[in-house]
Amino acid sequence: MNTLFKDLLGVTTFISELSAGIKKLFVPKIAYSWQTLIYLSVFSWGISFFATPPIKDTIAFFGWLFLIAGTSWYTTDNPLRIPGTFMPVGAVITGFLLSVFAFGQQENGISSGTIVLWPTISALITAIPEFFEGSGTDAKAQIPKPEDRQKIIVLLASSMVISCWLQFYFVVNNWLDKYPSLLSDNFKRSAFVIRTELPTKISPNGALILKEIRPKIETQINKQPWSQVEKWLENANANLVNLSQKVIQDNRLKQKDEKNLWRIEPRISNPNSRNKDEYTLDILSIWTGPSSDPRGYYLKQSCQIRPIADSTSKSTTKKPDEKPIIAEIECGPVSKPIIGLPPAQR
Amino acid sequence: MLENWTLPRVLPIGAILFDFLFLLLAISIEASCFNTRLKFDKKTSVFYAISINLFSSVIGWVAFFIIEPILPIQLKSELINFIFFNNFKYSNTQTIIILAAFIIFFGTFIVKLFLLRGFSLLLNEEFWKKTEEPANTDRQNWRNIKRAKLISNNLVSTMLIANSLSYTAITFVLLIRSK
What we know:
The structure holds 2 protein chains of 2 kinds.
Chain A: H1 2-26, H2 34-50, H3 53-77, H4 89-103, H5 112-127, E1 132-133, E2 140-141, H6 146-178, E3 194-195, H7 205-221, H8 226-234, H9 236-250, E4 262-269, E5 279-287, E6 297-309, E7 325-331, E8 338-339
Antiparallel strand pairs in A: 1-2, 4-5, 5-6, 6-7, 6-8
Helix pairs in contact in A: 2-3, 3-4, 4-5, 5-6, 7-9
Chain B: E1 10-11, H1 13-37, H2 42-67, H3 73-85, H4 93-123, H5 125-128, H6 138-178
Helix pairs in contact in B: 1-2, 1-6, 2-4, 4-6
């Protein structure tokens, strides 16, 4: 019973201490304190909701300034340092706010620049007080002692190196955005990067190009006079280059840098030697970019082209055995990526 | 706020660890070089080695970030090939690598030399005070100049030796890794 009472007493004193602490935190004793600045920033944030753009931005700007000043004041009052360095945690928080304010974007708040420059800005904020003597209102500019200078230089340099590493992370991930077909490969041999997501079965964009080229080729060849088709086949290289450029201009590859690394090439052969007029057109999309196998890979789509007599044409003036000869094309599915060099061009 | 933030798809942990390892190697080698050749005490030479190497590494990274977007597509593709798949596709990349290695070596040497002089000035107490030079006699002046030249020559050769040694160690590590 006694212990329970003691516990209860302990809890009540704890609660009263807590409320006193909260009160102390939120209600400043004097007007000249960090809480005032935080309240000002909240106030300007609220006000900026009701304002129209030019004034809104100005108020928001001042809100940021109040917030940064308030946090930096609060965190220099009772510094809690990051283990191993003389950098206060407060400098890190203020640094984050400052870099969001300076390098963030209007829409989503944080840009890659914010995160990259965060350590450097935090280190600069840590270094600034070293250049002033005294505290509060009567600060005096001074040059820090040589040992302090050494400390500042090492801190600044190491946080700049960390900034560089963060930027490298963004550069590497940006490559995957610009060259999405890289994701269909495996990164096991890499000494420098680790794949974080599970390998998914993504087919490289070469398959997409081939799929979209197919209907265009069919309209160019199907039901066209045979002589014209033979001419097309003689000129197949240039024709395919034209077609693939059109396809790339139309689809989502247009904005990716990797579009320059796909090469579309034809391979024409006569599958059976008895019938000289039957052709196999292999359309290859060859990846010339980075790949885990140094020989690279390519994708293939085979099409059969053969002449047929046009039975649909309604030319009544001509005799039936002089029917015009037209072409017919039949395309198979796009293959899986084939590792190795593509077959030689004939 | 974070709607267009995708999860990281690759983490360049290996690259960061290698950079860290190279920095450690270079700092320890160069610190001992400064200690033996320039007769700095241990603490000062470690400080010089740390700050010089960290800053030259930062300058190197920044140069990389500036050059990387303007590389021609073939070189960029080779760079990605090396970092993601650890191989090279074209045979003429080797010449470019050798050229780049030369440029990097002499570039870092010059940058480190400037940093060394800059930091030695920065830490010097006299540099910050505006000193009124006492009117020296000609003879004393000449002696001072000669002494300064000697120190500067020593500085250059020490930096060259330190840089060569640390790059030798780094190349050695790279060779072991590629086996």
